[in-house]
Amino acid sequence: MIVAGIDMGSLTTKAAIVEDFDLISHSIGRSGVNVVEIARHVMNEALGKVGLSSQDVERIVATGYGRISLPFAHRTITEITCNARGLHQQFPDSKIIIDIGGQDTKVIRLGPDGTVENFTMNDKCAAGTGRFLEVAAQTLEVDIDALAELSSQSRNTIEISSTCTVFAQTEIVSMMARQTPREDIIAALHVSIARRVFGLFCSLRTEGPIVMTGGVAKNSGVVRALENLIKRRLFIPENPQIWTAFGAALFGEKKQ
Predict the structure, then answer these.
(1) Whole-angstrom Cα distance, residue 1 to residue 244?
(2) CATH fold for domain 1-91+241-256
(3) What global pTM score does this model have?
(4) Which of 144, 214, 239, 242 fits 100 for a cystine, CB–CB 3.0-4.6 Å?
(5) What SS3 state is found at 51?
(6) Angle at 99 between CA 94 and CA 105, to 5 degrees
(7) How do the domains of the chain map onto residue ranges?
């Protein structure tokens, strides 16, 4: 049985192709105005990688912000439920999921069977999310993929005091005008994000392995800053952006 999960996020759309509960292919594309077109594109791209077509897919489950806009999905499920399902399949011992997406941050506590026991999220402001890092990278005129390496070169501790993306951008511009080293600014940004996430984490604090997902999980600077605050190791899965889509596909396998 071939099933597909599509996670329609604010910045990226992800597709996961699953056969007999195993991930066999995936694809990631930039979200755009035509959400249906990009969803179909990433799904077909993922299918093409393993020599399949849309006719081979028996069920499609959609999740994420744009899930209700997908007319060819057989079912829609919230991203928190899908994230928990996908990560529990890969990390059955995990107790906490930290998911930093394009425009929100979620901390999810899992029960023994991988169901959601509780969760908290910051969805009122883009600060502490992938969009926050994108804005900062544009302001600093650096590639977003270079942020982690640059922050590792920081030699001075400074602080970003603003908790709003717009105000933080203004603060960055002021620091640049004072010729503050770019790597110090980036390191401060990473710590600022980590502090916001840590505040969410503290409300659900529990023992057991912590898994971090979402695009920001690829930024080792943010991961280091968060580990320093939590005082525990964070487990980062391969391709950390795709596990919500994978979880959605698993619900198609189970026909729930």
Answers:
(1) 19
(2) Nucleotidyltransferase; domain 5 (3.30.420)
(3) 0.91
(4) 214
(5) coil
(6) 140
(7) 1-91+241-256, 95-236
